[in-house]
Design a protein that fits this description.
alpha+beta, 8 strands
Length: about 190
Amino acid sequence: MNSVKGNGKIVGFAIAIVITMLAIGCREEGESVHPEGLGFDSWFPLHLGETVLQVQLAVTPEEKAKGLMFREELAEDHGMLFAFQNPGPQKFWMRNTRIPLDIGYFSPEGVLREIHAAQPFDESGCPSRSNNIKIVLELNQGAFRAAKQSPGAKLNLNDIAVALEKRGFSSQQFGIKTSHTASEASE
């Protein structure tokens, strides 16, 4: 009887190892985990035109999947930025998201192309019309309008590069082109 219990523990341990390995293997191609960087809950300054926001950075697939889920509120001028390694069409939904949001879709150059209003818990999704989206910014609903930001507004890519590097990721890995290196920008 004891050998059966012992084997059950071994099988459980083996399953846990397999699940961990699968989770690590589900990152975007070329993405690496950088435990020495700041965490997902860190806030970074981001300029959108003349507006200064505070954003959290969703980089890993797990962070992107969680996004702003389960939060009761989002402070004014705060949001979440999603960085993608390759441009393409994007679709965001509001699963377990209690806050009405604006979803801004940006080109690889950091230019705002589209803004979509998203309602809490709506899982139908807000797809981008453009196939060339590399950055997505979620803000409180109405925040883009309140800040007088509309399509054509530009994100400061240096701010994103600095945030990525502080999180432990290379801005080059995400194809964020800046006027100078992020380490120079943070000095």
